[in-house]
Amino acid sequence: MTGTTGRDLFALSAPGLVFPGLSDVDRQAVLRRLAIGIAATLGGLADDATLVRGFAEREALGSTALGAGIAVPHCRIAGLNRPWIAIGLHPEGIEFGAADGRPVRIFFAVVSPSGSPAEHLRILASISRWSRDPARVEALASARTAEEAIGTLNAGGAEG
Questions:
Q1: Would you call 103 helix, strand, or coil by DSSP?
Q2: CB 65 within 8 A of CB 96
Q3: In which element (H, E) is residue 108 found?
């Protein structure tokens, strides 16, 4: 994933893992909403309680907000056969402890198999590289439907 494109990131997702129009008012509620959506889409591969706990444990170490309106809540869990990325979009944004103080509008929620720490770190780095383009970030943050979000990711150019 060195020259990361939106297609690369979306290849780790699925249409059912894109959540536009989040309206939750705080960090815990957003993480719970993403966990419930991920668990529902992945079926028996992950349950929402495990995901909520994994996201909360990671956030307790420090905010996963990258700045520029983006956060990357993530965890590794047993039982997955591959990593997944869910994309949550919050039109107004919420306070998420970002160093730049900006509210978070885009959530890339990453769940990976517990036995794949190197792959997990590569995915996090890929999201960070993808996020360096302000126009691309704004286009994704402005998406109002899952289809618009997917189209924005698929149109994203390489960033290395």
A1: coil
A2: yes
A3: strand 104-113
Q: How far apart are CA 100 and CA 102, in angstroms?
A: 6
Q: How many degrees, rounded to 5, is the angle at CA 3 between CA 85 and CA 14?
A: 20
- For the whole model, what pTM was predicted? 0.91
User: Which one is catalytic: 74, 90, 120, 136?
Assistant: 74
> Does a structural domain hold residue 1?
no
Q: Residue 22 burial by CB count (10 A; 0-12/13-18/19+): exposed, middle or buried?
A: buried
For residue 80, being part of any structural domain is answered with yes
Residues 6+ apart with CB under 8 A from 32: 24, 48, 52
Which range of residues forms the domain containing residue 133? Answer: 6-155
pLDDT in tens, 29-53: 999 999 999 999 988 788 999 999 9
Q: Is 74 tagged catalytic?
A: yes
Q: Tally the domains of the chain.
A: 1
For residue 144, the domain's CATH number is 3.40.930.10
Distance CA 46, CA 93 (A): 27
Tokens standing for residue 84: 């997944």
